[in-house]
Each structure stands twice: as C-alpha cells, then as structure tokens.
Amino acid sequence: TTSCDYTAAPSHRRGPVGSLPWTEVLALKPLSQQSCRELIRANAKRCGIEASGPTVERLVGWTCGSPLLIDLVLSDLRTNADQSLCLSYRPRQTGKSWEPPPGVRAQLERRFRSFWAGADAVVDFLAITTRPLTVATLSKVTSKKEDAVRTACQIGLDVGVLTAVRHGFIFSSEILRAYAAARLSEHRLRHCHRALANEIVERHEPGSPAGLNAIGHLRHAGDARGAAQLTLVTAQHSLECGNHRSEEHTSELQSH
Fold this sequence. Notes:
With 256 residues, the protein is mainly α. The protein contains 13 helices and 7 strands. The longest helix has 18 residues, at 186-203. The model is unreliable at 1-18, 92-96 and 250-256 (pLDDT under 50).
C-alpha cells in the first residue's frame, strides 16, 4: 500500500454548491515524491508495465503528486507503448507538435473547463513559459485589470491547475502546461511570446537573468532579427558590467 498525505481544513466559503449545501471541505495535499514513486511502481507492476528509473522520475515530476494524473499517464503508457505521452514527449514541446492521447485529453478538458471560462488569456500566457508570472505581468500582457487576473488565478488554484510560486503563478504540472499550450494556434502562440518578450524587456535590464528570457520568447515569436539584436545588446551589457556568467548564458540561448 501507498500512504496518502492529506489534511482536513474548514472552508471559509458558505452556501450551496449546486443543490448540495456545505460548510467545510476535505482538502487533499499532493502525494510526497516518495509516495508518488511507490504508487507509480506499484501500479506499473500491476498493469504489466516496465517502469525504468528515468521513467518513474519523469512521471513524478510531471504529475506533481496527483494520483489522477499518475493513473492517466500509466494507462496511456500501457495502451500506446512507444507512442504514449511518457515515451514520446520531449521537453518544451508546445503548439501543434504535441497531441495528448484521447483518454488523457478528455480528463484534462474536464479539469480545465471551469478555469477556461473567462480566463483564456491568462491561461495562454502561463502556458508558454515554465517561469512564474506575476499578477502585474499578466495584467499588462492580457490588458486585463489586476483584480480580474487574481480571480482567474484563484480559480486555477481552486481546481488544481495552477500553483502559487514566489508571488507569481505557474502550472502545477508540466502535463497541464503542455496541454494548455497545445490548444494555441500558431498565430496566438507567436502573439503571446512577443507580448511577453516586450514586457520582459520593459521591466528588466538586458543582462539580468529575467531579461535573458526575452531572447527565447522573441525567437518563438518568429522574430529572429529581434532576438539577434537583443542578444547583441545583452552581450554588450555583460561585457561592460563584467558579467561573464550572463554572457555565457546569452551564448547558450543563441545556440538553441
């Protein structure tokens, strides 16, 4: 058996949900990494799936302690083998290059349904980056008021799609982020990357770690010239400041 980490906490919200009145909620915490490993290995063995060490660690990182996501990816692995998400997915795949299997897609659609209603723009920008975005940044790039952004992010937290990190928000799982990115059209994908790059350039120095991310976003926006120009500006800034680490990071970004 695998232990389940959980805690019961009273809810501050009152009133009926649908036709069911309630005053408190049982909140389940994510499984610990070790519990995830035990659950993955046990379920894989039960289903006749060979789960190697790297595969187990990949699933631990993707599923973020969610037994539901663990079950989804293992079922997909059993059914689709080499074509499964676990064995065919590559880091940072986005857009039309990634298609979740039908069973996984159906579960993810249900998970996202309440989040998408009125929060599409927020979802889109969070989907194109693995770094946390603040409410202020999301407000700027989506042209939405900060209160509206906070509400959208709170919904994402409530349904387990988002996680709050360092005053910002990210997707709670790489699977969820990749799924949200996969639904974006090429035009929308480029627009989001460009808008986020512009916001980063406005807020950060060219040689700063955060500022360096704008180069990658410009490249994904299809603006090779803009990315090259910003790379040169960043390299010059690094030389002037003697920041060799930023210069090496810039060279690394340019080579990708």
